[in-house]
Amino acid sequence: MDIYTKRWQALGFLVAGAFLSPLDYFIVNMALPAIQNAFGASGQQLQLVVAIYGLTYAALIVCGGRLGDIYGRKRIFIWGLYLFLFSSLACAFSPNITVLIVSRFIQGIGASLLAPQVLASIRVLFDSNEQSKAVGVFSAVFGLAAVAGQLLGGVLLMTHWGNLSWEMVFLVNVPVTICCIIGIHFTMDNNGTEKGAAIDYKGALLLIIALLLLICPLIFGREYHWPWWIFAVMMAGALLLNIFFKHEVAAHRLQRPVLIDPMLLYNKQFATCLPMIFLYNFTAGLFICYPYYLQEFLHWDAIDTGFAIIPYGIAFFLGPLLVARLRFTTNGFIYIGLTLLMGGFLGTALLFYYGQQPFWATHITLFMAGLGHGTMMPVMMRTAIALVPKEKAGLASALVSISMQIGGVTGGAIIGTLFFSLIETVGFPKAFALAIATIALFQIISLLISRRLFELRNNAFNTIDK
C-alpha cells in the first residue's frame, strides 16, 4: 500500500485518536464536582485526578515518540489506543478515588503513545506544501476538544444513562478508540522502524522522577501549608532535571540510545520555541477553575456550565483554520496570538473581579483568549518541526508535545492552587479573577521570549544572505 495515497484518510484517524487526549482533559474537568460528591474527594485529590493524567502524559510522551521511531508509528499508535480503551473502562468503574487516580495514571501512559505519532507522521507523510494544512487540522482538534469536552461533559452528566453520571465521561472514549483502531489498520503503513535502535530507560526514569518532584509539590503544598521541605522537593526535581540533561549529552557523545537528542536543544531557534509553547498552555488553568466556579459558587448545572465555555472553545477551534488561510508572517501571527491571549484573560479577570456572573462581555473576552490560543498553537508547532530534519521528526515532535503537556500540567497546578487557596481569603469571584489574571501575566513572559526568537531568525536569515 502506498502510504501517501491514503495520507488524508490516515490523518483523519490519527487526529481522531489524538483527539481523545485533550478531550479527556476538558471533559473530566466538567465532572470534578460530581466526582467530589461521589467519593468525598478533597481539593488536592481532584487536582490530582487531572494532574496525574497530564503529568504521566508529559513525562512519557518523549518515550512515545521514540517508540514510534523504533517500532513503527502505526503499531505504537494502536498500542496507545488499546491502553487508552482499557484504562478508560477502569476509570469509569473505579470503586474509590484512589483507584480512579491510578487508572488516570495508566490512561496518561496510553495518551503519551498517541500525540507524538501524529506530528511525526505529518512530517513524514506530507510534503512541505501540505504540512501547514495538516498541522492546522491537528491543531483545530484541540479547539474542537474544548467545545466537545464542555458540551458533551454537560450532557453526559445530566442524562444519567443507566444510573451512571460522571462514569460516562470515560465510557464515551470506548467507541472512538474502537473506530480508530479499525480505521488506522486499513489506511496507514508502519512508518518508522529504526533497526537496531533502543530506548534510554535510565533517561526515561530520571525524567519521570524529576517531573514528579517538580509538579506534585505545587498540588500538595497548600494542604501542608507550604513547609520548607515542599520547596526542597522542587529544588531536588530541578537538580534531577539537570542531571537528566547531562546524562543525555553524555549518552549522545558515546553514541548510546538517548531519550531526547540534546543537539536539538542546541538549535537556538528550536529551543526558543519550547518555552513559548510551555507558557501558552498555562491556559489549562481556566478549565480547572471556571467549571468549578460556575457549579460550586453560582450553582449552575453541568449543561449551562458547558455552554459558558463555548466562546473560548469555538475561537480555539477557528484559530488554526484562520491561520491556514490568512497570509501573515510567523512573527505577525505570534504577536497577534499573544496579544489576544493577554487581552482576553485580563478582560475576563477584570469582569469577574468587579462582578460575579458571566455575561455578553465575558463571552467576548473569552472568545478573544480562545482565538489567541488557537492562533498560537499551529504557528508554534509548524515553526518548531520545520526547524529540524525529517529523521529527527519523532524526537522533535515529542519535545513539542512534552512542552505542551508540562505547560498544561504546570499551569493547571499553579493556577488551580492559587484559585483554591484564595477562595478561603478573598472569596470565589476575586479568587477566580486573580487566577485568570495570572495566566495573562505569564503570556507577557512569552512575549519577551518571542522577541528573542525573532532576533535569532533574523540573524539566521542575515547569515544566509551573506
Automatic annotation (TrEMBL):
Secretion signal span: none
UniProt-annotated location(s): Membrane
Native organism: Sphingobacterium detergens
Domain of life the protein comes from: Bacteria
PANTHER family (alphabetical): ACTINORHODIN TRANSPORTER-RELATED, MAJOR FACILITATOR SUPERFAMILY MULTIDRUG TRANSPORTER MFSC
Transmembrane feature ranges: 12-32, 44-64, 76-99, 105-126, 138-162, 168-187, 199-220, 226-245, 273-293, 305-326, 333-354, 360-381, 393-419, 431-449
UniProt xrefs under Gene3D superfamilies: MFS general substrate transporter like domains, Multidrug resistance protein D
Protein name: MFS transporter
